[in-house]
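Recall the central idea of this unit: under ordinary conditions, the amino acid sequence of a chain determines the structure it adopts. In this exercise we apply that idea directly, starting from the sequence alone.
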Amino acid sequence: MKQSIENYNDVELYYLMRSKPETAEKAFAELYSRYAPRVYAYCRRFLGNREDAQDVFQETFVRFYKSINSERVMTNIPAFILKIARNLCVNSKRREKPPITLEEYMSGHNDRTDTDELLNLIKTALDLLPQEYREMFILREYDGLSYTEIAEVAGISIATVKIRLFRAKQRIREILAPYLADLEKNIN
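Accordingly, the structure predicted from this sequence is:
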Protein backbone atom coordinates (compact mmCIF):
# COMPACT_ATOMS: atom_id res chain seq x y z
CA MET A 1 0.00 0.00 0.00
CA LYS A 2 1.97 2.93 -1.29
CA GLN A 3 -0.79 5.53 -1.13
CA SER A 4 -3.17 6.50 1.62
CA ILE A 5 -6.16 4.14 1.90
CA GLU A 6 -8.59 7.02 1.24
CA ASN A 7 -7.07 7.54 -2.22
CA TYR A 8 -8.00 4.09 -3.52
CA ASN A 9 -11.18 3.71 -5.53
CA ASP A 10 -13.91 1.30 -4.42
CA VAL A 11 -12.88 -1.60 -6.62
CA GLU A 12 -9.25 -1.34 -5.56
CA LEU A 13 -10.35 -1.33 -1.92
CA TYR A 14 -12.50 -4.39 -2.50
CA TYR A 15 -9.54 -6.30 -3.87
CA LEU A 16 -7.32 -4.99 -1.04
CA MET A 17 -9.74 -6.71 1.32
CA ARG A 18 -8.17 -9.96 0.08
CA SER A 19 -4.72 -8.84 1.32
CA LYS A 20 -3.05 -9.41 4.65
CA PRO A 21 -5.36 -8.82 7.65
CA GLU A 22 -4.15 -5.31 8.53
CA THR A 23 -4.59 -4.03 4.96
CA ALA A 24 -7.90 -5.87 4.57
CA GLU A 25 -9.23 -4.29 7.75
CA LYS A 26 -8.29 -0.78 6.61
CA ALA A 27 -9.81 -1.33 3.16
CA PHE A 28 -13.05 -2.62 4.68
CA ALA A 29 -13.16 0.27 7.17
CA GLU A 30 -12.79 2.78 4.33
CA LEU A 31 -15.59 1.18 2.28
CA TYR A 32 -17.73 1.01 5.41
CA SER A 33 -17.21 4.70 6.12
CA ARG A 34 -18.10 5.57 2.52
CA TYR A 35 -21.33 3.60 2.34
CA ALA A 36 -22.61 2.92 5.86
CA PRO A 37 -24.82 6.06 6.12
CA ARG A 38 -26.42 5.39 2.74
CA VAL A 39 -27.04 1.71 3.48
CA TYR A 40 -28.46 2.42 6.94
CA ALA A 41 -30.79 5.08 5.52
CA TYR A 42 -31.98 2.64 2.87
CA CYS A 43 -32.64 -0.08 5.47
CA ARG A 44 -34.40 2.40 7.76
CA ARG A 45 -36.70 3.66 5.02
CA PHE A 46 -37.41 0.21 3.64
CA LEU A 47 -38.15 -1.44 6.98
CA GLY A 48 -39.59 1.54 8.83
CA ASN A 49 -38.24 0.68 12.25
CA ARG A 50 -34.87 1.36 13.80
CA GLU A 51 -34.21 -2.04 15.40
CA ASP A 52 -34.89 -4.10 12.26
CA ALA A 53 -32.95 -1.60 10.15
CA GLN A 54 -29.96 -1.85 12.47
CA ASP A 55 -30.01 -5.65 12.33
CA VAL A 56 -30.22 -5.74 8.55
CA PHE A 57 -27.61 -3.00 8.23
CA GLN A 58 -25.11 -4.97 10.32
CA GLU A 59 -25.84 -8.21 8.49
CA THR A 60 -25.33 -6.41 5.17
CA PHE A 61 -21.77 -5.49 6.03
CA VAL A 62 -21.04 -8.92 7.50
CA ARG A 63 -22.12 -10.50 4.21
CA PHE A 64 -20.22 -7.91 2.23
CA TYR A 65 -17.08 -8.71 4.18
CA LYS A 66 -17.59 -12.44 3.65
CA SER A 67 -18.00 -11.86 -0.10
CA ILE A 68 -14.28 -11.29 -0.50
CA ASN A 69 -13.77 -15.05 -0.35
CA SER A 70 -15.73 -15.59 -3.54
CA GLU A 71 -14.16 -15.29 -6.93
CA ARG A 72 -16.25 -12.52 -8.40
CA VAL A 73 -15.41 -9.60 -10.61
CA MET A 74 -16.39 -6.44 -8.78
CA THR A 75 -17.22 -3.29 -10.71
CA ASN A 76 -19.83 -1.39 -8.67
CA ILE A 77 -19.38 -1.62 -4.91
CA PRO A 78 -22.32 0.62 -3.85
CA ALA A 79 -24.74 -1.35 -6.04
CA PHE A 80 -23.39 -4.63 -4.68
CA ILE A 81 -23.78 -3.52 -1.05
CA LEU A 82 -27.27 -2.13 -1.70
CA LYS A 83 -28.24 -5.38 -3.39
CA ILE A 84 -27.20 -7.30 -0.27
CA ALA A 85 -29.19 -4.83 1.88
CA ARG A 86 -32.17 -5.09 -0.44
CA ASN A 87 -32.27 -8.87 -0.26
CA LEU A 88 -32.01 -8.81 3.52
CA CYS A 89 -34.75 -6.15 3.76
CA VAL A 90 -37.04 -8.19 1.51
CA ASN A 91 -36.47 -11.28 3.65
CA SER A 92 -37.10 -9.28 6.81
CA LYS A 93 -40.36 -7.87 5.44
CA ARG A 94 -41.54 -11.37 4.54
CA ARG A 95 -41.24 -12.39 8.19
CA GLU A 96 -43.01 -9.25 9.42
CA LYS A 97 -46.67 -8.79 10.20
CA PRO A 98 -48.70 -6.96 7.53
CA PRO A 99 -48.73 -3.15 7.70
CA ILE A 100 -51.70 -1.31 9.17
CA THR A 101 -54.44 -0.29 6.80
CA LEU A 102 -55.19 3.31 5.97
CA GLU A 103 -58.48 3.07 7.88
CA GLU A 104 -56.70 1.76 10.99
CA TYR A 105 -54.22 4.59 10.73
CA MET A 106 -56.90 7.27 10.36
CA SER A 107 -59.00 5.97 13.26
CA GLY A 108 -56.06 5.80 15.66
CA HIS A 109 -54.31 9.08 14.94
CA ASN A 110 -56.85 11.86 15.17
CA ASP A 111 -54.98 13.85 17.84
CA ARG A 112 -51.93 14.83 15.75
CA THR A 113 -51.35 18.14 14.05
CA ASP A 114 -52.11 18.30 10.35
CA THR A 115 -48.45 18.50 9.39
CA ASP A 116 -47.39 15.57 11.54
CA GLU A 117 -50.40 13.63 10.40
CA LEU A 118 -49.62 14.28 6.74
CA LEU A 119 -46.00 13.16 7.19
CA ASN A 120 -47.13 10.02 8.99
CA LEU A 121 -49.78 9.40 6.35
CA ILE A 122 -47.15 9.64 3.60
CA LYS A 123 -45.03 7.11 5.49
CA THR A 124 -48.06 4.87 5.87
CA ALA A 125 -48.86 5.27 2.18
CA LEU A 126 -45.33 4.16 1.41
CA ASP A 127 -45.78 1.15 3.72
CA LEU A 128 -49.02 0.25 1.93
CA LEU A 129 -47.30 0.05 -1.45
CA PRO A 130 -46.46 -3.37 -2.80
CA GLN A 131 -42.87 -4.19 -1.93
CA GLU A 132 -41.52 -3.87 -5.47
CA TYR A 133 -43.04 -0.39 -5.85
CA ARG A 134 -41.88 0.78 -2.41
CA GLU A 135 -38.36 -0.37 -3.15
CA MET A 136 -38.20 1.55 -6.46
CA PHE A 137 -39.61 4.67 -4.80
CA ILE A 138 -37.08 4.53 -1.94
CA LEU A 139 -34.12 3.95 -4.23
CA ARG A 140 -35.13 6.81 -6.53
CA GLU A 141 -36.63 9.44 -4.24
CA TYR A 142 -34.69 8.90 -1.02
CA ASP A 143 -31.39 7.46 -2.23
CA GLY A 144 -31.27 9.43 -5.49
CA LEU A 145 -30.19 6.50 -7.64
CA SER A 146 -30.50 6.70 -11.40
CA TYR A 147 -32.76 4.29 -13.30
CA THR A 148 -29.67 2.37 -14.39
CA GLU A 149 -28.39 2.04 -10.83
CA ILE A 150 -31.80 0.93 -9.58
CA ALA A 151 -32.00 -1.67 -12.35
CA GLU A 152 -28.60 -3.00 -11.34
CA VAL A 153 -29.43 -3.14 -7.63
CA ALA A 154 -32.81 -4.79 -8.18
CA GLY A 155 -31.69 -7.04 -11.03
CA ILE A 156 -34.44 -5.87 -13.39
CA SER A 157 -34.64 -3.90 -16.64
CA ILE A 158 -34.69 -0.10 -16.79
CA ALA A 159 -38.15 -0.27 -18.37
CA THR A 160 -39.43 -2.25 -15.38
CA VAL A 161 -37.89 0.31 -13.01
CA LYS A 162 -39.70 3.14 -14.79
CA ILE A 163 -43.02 1.30 -14.79
CA ARG A 164 -42.78 0.44 -11.08
CA LEU A 165 -41.82 4.01 -10.18
CA PHE A 166 -44.75 5.39 -12.15
CA ARG A 167 -47.14 2.96 -10.47
CA ALA A 168 -45.69 3.70 -7.03
CA LYS A 169 -46.26 7.44 -7.44
CA GLN A 170 -49.71 6.84 -8.87
CA ARG A 171 -50.65 4.59 -5.94
CA ILE A 172 -49.34 7.09 -3.36
CA ARG A 173 -51.50 9.80 -4.96
CA GLU A 174 -54.54 7.49 -4.79
CA ILE A 175 -53.88 6.67 -1.13
CA LEU A 176 -53.42 10.32 -0.17
CA ALA A 177 -56.29 11.72 -2.29
CA PRO A 178 -59.10 11.28 0.30
CA TYR A 179 -57.00 12.80 3.07
CA LEU A 180 -55.90 15.75 0.93
CA ALA A 181 -59.50 16.38 -0.18
CA ASP A 182 -60.65 16.34 3.44
CA LEU A 183 -57.79 18.65 4.45
CA GLU A 184 -58.68 21.09 1.66
CA LYS A 185 -62.36 21.00 2.69
CA ASN A 186 -61.42 21.82 6.31
CA ILE A 187 -59.20 24.71 5.21
CA ASN A 188 -61.93 26.29 3.08
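The chain has a mean pLDDT of 82.
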